[in-house]
Amino acid sequence: MSDAIQMLEVMIGAQLAREELPSRERIRDLIAALRKSPICADVTDEQAENLALFFEATHGVTMTVGSVLTEESYHPWLDDAKAKITPYYWDRYRKLLAEKGFSGQVLATLDKVTDTILNALENPQKPGPWDRRGMIVGHVQSGKTANYTGLICKAADAGYRLVVVIAGIHNNLRNQTQRRIDEGFVGRDSANIASNRADKFIGVGKFDKTRRPVTFTSSIKDFNSTLANGVGVPLKNLTEPAVFVIKKNSKTLENLINWLQQHNARIGTSKIDAPMLLVDDEADNASINTKSREEASKINGQIRTLLKIFDRSCYVGYTATPFANIFIDPSSSTEMLGQDLFPRHFIVSLDPPTNYFGARKVFIDSPSQVLRSISDNEGVFPLVHKKDFKVTATPGSLKTAIRAFVLGRAIRLGRGEEHFHCSMLVNVSRFTDVQRQLRNEIHEFIGFLKSSIRVNGSLKEEKALLDSEIAALHKVWLEEFASTTEFDWKRVQGLLNEAIQPISVVEVNSRSAGSLNYNDHAKTGLNVIAVGGYALSRGLTLEGLMVSYFLRNSVMYDTLMQMGRWFGYRSGYEDLCRVWMPEAAEGWYAHITESIDELREELRQMEEANATPEQFGLKVRSHPDTLIVTAYNKMGSGEEIRVSVGLANQFVETSILRSDKGSLASNREAVINMVKALRAIGKPLSEGNRTREGFLISDVPVEIVRQFLAAFRNHPVSMLTDPAPLLRYISDRQDTELAKWDILFPSLGGKDPNTLADSSLGVEIRCQRRSSGKKSTESILYVTEKQRVASRGIEKAGLSKDEMEKAESEYRKTHEPKNDKSIINYPDRIYRAVRKRPLLIVHLLAIGDKDADLSHTVPVVAWGISFPSTQMEEKLVEYVVNDTWKKENFRDEFDEEEEDGDQE
User: Fold this and answer.
1) Which of 282, 397, 565, 841 could cross-link to 864 by cystine, CB 3.0-4.6 Å?
2) C-alpha closest to that of 242 among 252, 228, 255
3) Confidence label for 354 from pLDDT (cuts 50, 70 and 90)
4) Pairing state of beta strands 839-847 and 276-281?
5) pLDDT digits over 413-439, tens only?
6) What is the model's pLDDT at position 598?
7) Kind and range of the H or E element at 67?
8) Cα distance from N-terminal residue to C-terminal residue, the chain
9) Cβ atoms < 10 Å from Cβ of 144
């Protein structure tokens, strides 16, 4: 990128940041006016139009304020205090974000959101003692660091004297966070601290350096007392705020606590008077008091000790996973409130900007565009392996993903993005020795590609394609990009050498010397394939991440979501982004995405009802998915695990079934008996019941449903469909909300001769085709790799047209499409909210491969229930987590824990 274009980009960005929603005409008029300047005379029409399109995309981005819950005794203070606050630090930071291309509308919303959070903290001018505890719920890679940097700036303007940022458990994440705080708040490169080198002003320091916050940590060194003493000034004598960016490590916390008490406490006490803000990034990780994990509990105690040192303190935990353990103490609701880090004073849910590339887009709205399945790994790189596993080859799918990365970079070069960062993530093992071996394998493969492209890439197309590596690249281009990008193969081939030569392969973990310091490559762009495990799974940002290859076996919600480094902002290259993962992982991600969306919606509704953080915490704890989270927290504890769950407005289904012949026959008999019972009360299953979804019978007495559920032989691993708690829940409402039911028997349309057509129920049901998951055995059947039975939209069944429109119009109020061409994918949960009767779905499934002839197989029975919301006081039912369920869900985690003496 030429100096003239860079200058033009900076000037336009600064101007547009002051305008909330500039039109495309306004953007082009501004570019035309600035091109008249002599310094921009060399900018071509094509370059100017590319710049206009960039700003059009950037400044069309909008963002809304999220939801806020506060405790009942909350008293806002910020509006009254603003007249006395000089926004020095915030103004500098706002200018920096404008220079980075944040739209005026997004900046205005960020200003409002950070005001909302600051207002939820305590007024730092208020005499002590006081303390506040809160939580900010963001999205993975959605800009939480930008948010809390803005909050720190405003807190410093308001009078907070000390800021502590706890930034992850790995050095690379802490260093990255320090650099961002340097850039957005301090204004100086902290690497120069405690050296004889002159100050290097960066970020906000380029706008105004008359006031300088003091940092006691640097971008190359975590906190230690020697460095802190080298600053040479006690906290009480500082004229500007002090900031510490520390690793979430018990030794570091111990050192900080000791230093603060020894050097800064009031004489004769162990307390410090200065108002302190503690920002806990990734607050669900290691900060939680889980009794079964000694180190986590130790860190929890140290954070609480750190807060107690100060007479006046505020704790703000940032997380992207609302299922964080802080809400889910396994013992009791009173213990949940007894935890000092519970956000009892406020919870704020952040809404991401409209250009956020998040879980819903990847796993719900556009999975076919982004996701690619891995099915060829087991022979060469098994999902479950030990720490001494020897890597001797790479899966073909990984080579395909690497080729897609090279092609994507070539296309970005064609779009004029030659100095932009480009990254690929490879996360396939938690073991550092395995990561190192794989890094070497990928390095060797990239070397082969580089040689082929260097020698033959410049030849004419026909001759170049005689090279097997270039032919393989061409094949991936045809499959992935030919129909969606603006360039033909000739243009892409011509850019391959420039695209691949700068690419390096870096190992990123606690033992490696590999670096992801993108700042060192700000002018040229860093082009890297990052191979790692846990160090790539929490907080660390991979700039320009385009292709991800993910092969991990965890089913833990927070772990999976945090491993999703591919979420974020992909302006200008979103169409090139690809994620390779096993089909089972796709299913888990889709489920978790829906669950988290559900809880965000619950938070929004609770805000409207003026609910408190305590009430939201209790709601999270009663969600069915707490079975997974709570069981994992207590895994290996040897005690019986009891979890109370709310089933109102929930959907449960038998995605794991008994597959022995006796159980399969018994379950078919249960359906036949239910159909007989329906006929006996004058509700026969017949062609008159046919609907678009299948055969629907309405207003069925609850007793017929109860008899079916009691007769169905449930697999103990299918915990939520355990008949005992389900029947208890139904019994509590069988005279009121659950007295009458709708029953749906899904049936496919069409006349595919390979489809199983079953007439055992008196009508022809064309059975839905489902595959058998890889973990299936002679005694257990996993319905598909994704463990999903029902198709999307099935919960519409039984609703009137008016009810469906009501549900969809309510959803559109908070989920408007980005443009007229966007299609809204309505989640099934919105139909539950308007349902008056519960819906029992009885599936007859044809189990087999996708293209197999299943016309002569025997149907397998499964079922699902869509429970309506309740107008009564919600009564929870208790599930007892059995060992069979625990070992089946977490068997890989058990195996790895036993073998893992050398994890990163």
Assistant:
1) 841
2) 228
3) confident
4) unpaired
5) 998 888 899 999 999 998 889 999 999
6) 87
7) strand 67-70
8) 39
9) 22
